[in-house]
């Protein structure tokens, strides 16, 4: 269940502007999320990582901070905990969202024993959604370093950057270096003596803020944090050394990198550091009117400084891709397929289909033998769901439906289909052409197909579809370039020899005219296509 914490913001929690300090908020977020993790695990838990955090609103002295934390999914020994922070004004009763974040906690076994976490009980539609998406977010975490290194390689191919070192007005990055040392004492740790992750985050925010202030000569405001990842533990008695430096400046924002090293007494004497954490914090600064101020340019002076400089650019590209993908409107058209956005676009693809399938209010419009057609209207968006009872195992249906080069064999709307890019085993980009409708040119599509196998038997197979933009495949005058906003299949096994196949498609007015025409009255065409799909699956699956 949820763990909730409500905390009034007192002056001791605030900065000079009377706003809740980001470090204090990070401590509260970590403590609440840790309690949720321990409530599920039944044992002590430690912070493994905190995903990218965006701070949308500031809380002021006298307002109430409310933090809700809930375990979304339990893996073998780790859990994803969702955290939502809101601020409530006691005078106006207005509530605003400060941040939504996701953290990973690891359960610590007692003694030499091993632990395997129980699955999360899914009681609501929202529980099911977050449970599915938690697996997608885990994929992003595991693939982050690969994406980052690819972006760095792309940056290295772009040429000489010696002009950066010659900028006359730029400030040397060395002038922003800050070092701070903290002694971990009992109030900073849990009952097992492990330092609270939130406490380390708070110390990192403090030293990063000082580093940023040396560049802007003002009071910086923390706006976001790249993923906190804890590489190792620290305990009571450790000396933690924090080193912060500005990596790069982006006009109205600055990235500060912080490295944390731990020493016990013996290591302290021998100067043998344990690297326990690194993070990148993004600050901006405002004037008295609340207007964003511009930061001076930064100049790296060493090879390592240049590495950090380019790393900051790569991380910014990933942040922008994340923001575009995770917070895009559901009827948003296709996005450019770039290295920085691949993981988030795949997440967006699967998430959109999962949300569409879970929507309430579907109305049945046709029933024919083992095929049912449902529709869902919301504003100018019309969604279609087709249910088919198919007499083949679910894994075979998944294999056949996830290969779009086979779709011409049952779907008359597919004239040609070719694979443009096999991104990995689970993601492919296809180019598809469709025959002309009366009074229209033939249509073509560039789509991303993301396929997912279930992690456990109760979950469906997923084949998610979304249009993307490839610079190598621009629109042609011969075709009408069409958009698939959200489509795909969910396949659930009924038995060893049958399954339920659900096809979904979301369309908007003026988009994909042949689908719009079918949905306004030609339901017979949809039934025919569904029947052909069912026959194709049972014929191929029965061999």
TrEMBL record:
The keyword Lipid metabolism applies. Keywords: Cytoplasm, Fatty acid metabolism, Hydrolase, Lipid metabolism, Repeat, Serine esterase. GO terms for cellular component: cytosol. It is found in: Cytoplasm. Residues 359-507 form the START domain. It comes from the Eukaryota. One of its GO terms (biological process) is acetyl-CoA metabolic process. InterPro entries: Cytosol_ACT, HOTDOG_ACOT, HotDog_dom_sf, START-like_dom_sf, START_lipid-bd_dom, Thioestr_dom. SMART domains: START. This is ACO12 thioesterase. The lineage of its organism: Eukaryota, Metazoa, Chordata, Craniata, Vertebrata.
């Amino acid at each position: 269940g949820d763990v909730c914490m409500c905390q009034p913001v007192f002056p001791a929690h605030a900065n000079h502007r009377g706003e809740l300090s980001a470090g204090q908020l990070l401590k509260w977020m970590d403590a609440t999320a840790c309690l949720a993790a321990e409530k599920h695990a039944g044992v002590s838990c430690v912070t493994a990582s905190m995903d990218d955090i965006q701070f949308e609103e500031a809380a002021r002295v006298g307002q109430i901070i409310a933090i809700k934390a809930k375990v979304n999914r339990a893996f073998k020994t780790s859990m994803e905990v969702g955290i939502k922070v809101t601020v409530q004004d006691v005078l106006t009763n207005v509530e605003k969202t400060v941040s939504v974040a996701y953290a990973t906690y690891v359960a610590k076994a007692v003694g030499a024993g091993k632990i395997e976490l129980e699955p999360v009980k899914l009681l609501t539609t929202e529980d099911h959604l977050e449970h599915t998406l938690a697996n997608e977010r885990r994929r992003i975490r595991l693939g982050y370093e690969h994406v980052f290194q690819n972006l760095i390689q792309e940056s290295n191919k772009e040429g000489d950057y010696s002009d950066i070192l010659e900028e006359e007005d730029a400030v040397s990055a060395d002038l922003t270096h800050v070092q701070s040392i903290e002694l971990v004492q009992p109030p900073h740790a849990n009952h097992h003596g492990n330092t609270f992750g939130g406490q380390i985050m708070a110390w990192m925010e403090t030293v990063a803020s000082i580093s940023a202030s040396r560049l802007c000569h003002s009071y910086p405001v923390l706006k976001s944090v790249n993923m906190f990842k804890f590489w190792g533990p620290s305990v009571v008695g450790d000396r933690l050394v924090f080193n912060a430096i500005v990596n790069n400046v982006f006009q109205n924002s600055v990235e500060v990198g912080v490295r944390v090293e731990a020493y016990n007494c013996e290591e302290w004497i021998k100067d043998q550091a344990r690297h326990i954490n690194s993070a990148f914090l993004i600050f901006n600064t405002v004037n008295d009117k609340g207007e964003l101020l511009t930061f001076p340019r930064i100049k790296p002076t060493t090879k390592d400084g240049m590495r950090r400089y380019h790393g900051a650019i790569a991380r910014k590209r990933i942040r922008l891709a994340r923001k575009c993908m995770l917070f895009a409107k559901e009827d948003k058209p296709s996005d450019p397929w770039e290295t920085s956005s691949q993981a988030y676009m795949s997440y967006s693809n699967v998430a959109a289909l999962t949300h569409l399938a879970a929507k309430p209010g579907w109305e049945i419009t046709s029933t024919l033998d083992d095929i049912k057609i449902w529709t869902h209207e919301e504003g100018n968006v019309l969604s279609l769901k087709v249910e088919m009872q198919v007499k083949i195992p679910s894994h075979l249906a998944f294999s056949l439906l996830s290969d779009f080069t086979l779709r011409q064999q049952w779907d008359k709307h597919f004239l040609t289909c070719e694979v443009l890019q096999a991104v990995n085993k689970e993601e492919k980009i296809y180019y598809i052409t469709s025959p002309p409708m009366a009074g229209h040119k033939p249509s073509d599509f560039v789509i991303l197909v993301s396929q997912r196998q279930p992690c456990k038997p109760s979950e469906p197979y997923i084949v998610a579809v979304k249009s993307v933009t490839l610079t190598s495949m621009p629109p042609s005058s011969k075709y009408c370039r069409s958009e698939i906003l959200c489509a795909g299949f969910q396949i659930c096994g009924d038995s060893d020899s049958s399954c339920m196949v659900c096809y979904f498609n979301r369309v908007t007015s003026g988009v994909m005219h042949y689908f719009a025409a079918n949905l306004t009255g030609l339901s017979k065409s949809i039934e025919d296509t569904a029947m052909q799909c069912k026959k194709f699956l049972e014929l191929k699956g029965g061999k």
